[in-house]
Amino acid sequence: MSQKLNSFEIAQQQLRMAVDKLELDASVYEVLKNPKRSMTVVIPVRMDDGSTRVFTGYRVQHNDALGPAKGGVRFHQDVNLDEVKALATWMTFKCAVVGIPYGGGKGGVIVDPEELSRAELERLSRGYIQAIAPVIGPDKDIPAPDVNTNAQIMAWMMDEFSLIKQHNSFGVITGKPLIIGGSLGRTEATAQGVVYVTEDMTKAKNIELEKATVVIQGFGNVGSYAAKILFDKKAKIVALSDVKGGIYNPKGLNPYKVSEHVAATGSVVNYVGAKNITNGELLELECDVLIPAALENQITDQNVDNIKARIIVEGANGPTTPEADKILEQKGIPVVPDIVANAGGVTVSYFEWVQNNMGYYWSEEEVNNRLGQIMHTVFNRTYELYRSNKGINMRVAAYMLAVQRVAEGMQVRGWIGTALPKQKATRISAK
Ligand code: GLU
Q1: In the annotation, is 236 catalytic?
Q2: Looking at the structure, do residues 45 and 166 belong to the same domain, yes or no?
Q3: Residue 417: its pLDDT value, please?
């Protein structure tokens, strides 16, 4: 039993596995094991009562060989630099496996946003951008929403950057409201992507999605929309949860009604017609599909033996530890890894940025069709590589595809020497 739950060390382990499997030169690991740039900033915020509170924020740019750094900003009381480094590292490989022209970045501020008024939240968001303005930009690093941040916060951030630059810079931030350069479909995009790969994975396992029982941890942007889209597809949502706890009804829950209950009470807990359960109990429920859509390190060596789901689709970043991964493999429970499963959000962020750069906006149908094509292709590539290589799981397969691309980019740019065994490069990129 190990208590090693440092997400950044986990990200490094995942990278190491792919570099070893691909038999790449050690320099690839050496360059990618640490972020290129990590910035810690101090953000003084004037509170409504006239006092000043000083917040700590981070922006980490892991690697930008394939394009500007890209990744969300998280507002959470437990944010720390190692977590942001891990999330930035995962973004590099998420963008690479999808094949969108970005590197990886991530930001975070240590704050419980529920404690702030709207005006305080606005000043914090603007203060964060003032602090990181020197290192971001549409061709440098493009922030977006993540845990506890939303389109309104992105609007303030984009506005602050535009004020600093003295011209509108829509492309510096994605996940904005529609009226100021947001993309149709962006709010639901991560969940929509999760559903596309859930369709693929259930098909591969001969599970009928229309009758499948689904358990979702987290009722934020990913979990709530995933529940609604899957409910619309006639899947049976048997359990849902948020930070305060979970609810369970084996006969199925209507997530639209649960949303109304959340709007009225602030939580899914005490929803009429369901039994209250803990987040821990929720993960161990019998179900066809388990979607962790909350935070890191939820499926660990402590609870993996009790996981009864038939498949796991990672809506969250880093919900499964490497120890748990190994045991899930032994148990024959496939995991669609985060960098594939939740890539829909950053993919539509990319569409948003393209639309901002073009000044020409797409229909929702166009966005969703393109997203669907990309998600199914990425799933298929990952699944085929996993099936054709003994002894690897889908996570290792996804990392192999991603690390290969980043290594190729770094090599042609001259950042590293001859790192790539030739025939391996051709075999993987031929798919
Ligand atoms: N925060 C999301 C993620 O973890 C989206 C990032 C983005 O759109 O840049 O993938």
Answers
A1: no
A2: yes
A3: 87
In a domain, 308, yes or no: yes
* Helix boundaries (H) for 209-320: 221-232, 255-265, 279-283
Whether residues 193 and 337 share a domain: the answer is yes
Global pTM? 0.96
Collapsing DSSP states into helix, strand and coil, what is residue 294?
coil
Measured from the Cα of 142, ligand 1's closest atom is: 9
Catalytic residue among 36, 94, 106, 176: 106
pLDDT tens digits, 198-242: 999 999 999 999 999 999 999 999 999 999 999 999 999 999 999
- Residues 195, 82 share a domain: no
* Nearest residue (CA) to ligand 1, atom 9: 71
pLDDT digits (tens, 9 = 90+) for 168-205: 999 999 999 999 999 999 999 999 999 999 999 999 99
28 and 40 housed in the same domain: no
- CA of residue 409 relative to chain centroid, distance: 23
State the Cα–Cα distance between residues 367 and 351, nearest whole angstrom.
7
Asked whether residue 160 falls in the same domain as residue 230, the answer is no
Q: Containing domain of residue 73, as a range?
A: 36-171
C-alpha 86: how far from chain center: 11
Question: Cβ < 6 Å from ligand 1: which residues?
Answer: 70-72, 144, 146, 174-175, 317, 342, 345-346, 349
Q: Which ligand 1 atom sits closest to the C-alpha of 343?
A: 10
In 185-235, which ranges are E strands?
213-217
